[in-house]
Amino acid sequence: MLVLSRQRDETIMIGDDIEITVVDIRGDKIRLGISAPPRIAVHRKEVYEAIKAENARAAGLSASDLTGVDGAVSPGPPRRPAAARLA
After folding, report:
1. Percent of the chain's residues with pLDDT above 70
2. What is the pTM of this model?
């Protein structure tokens, strides 16, 4: 793990696209500003862990767990043949 010391308004770069700036320091807490492209998900670790756990739970669902879902979802409009879409 790389450990860096930064003061208020100082920034750390991760690659070319991610900036982490120390916005505020109050006692034993710091506020960070994170600038990253939309393709990069940024979460607090506890939120990230909850997302991972929910994804793992959803991936473990069996077909019987999904009984009744088909009645809860409305079908979309009928699909046109590919030739009609290209015309």
Report:
1. 86
2. 0.63
Instruction: List pLDDT tens digits, range 9-50.
Output: 999 999 999 999 999 999 999 999 999 999 999 999 999 999
- For the chain, what's the residue count? 87
Rg of the chain (C-alpha set): 23
Q: Sheet containing 29-35: which strands, arranged edge to edge?
A: 11-14, 18-26, 29-35
Q: Which residues of 49-60 are buried (b: 16+ CB within 10 A; e: fewer)?
A: eeeeeeeeeeee
- One DSSP character per residue, 36-72 reads --TTS----HHHHHHHHHHHHHHHT--GGGGTTHHHH
- Count Cβ atoms within 10 A of the Cβ of residue 6 and give its class: 0-12 exposed, 13-18 middle, 19 or more buried: middle
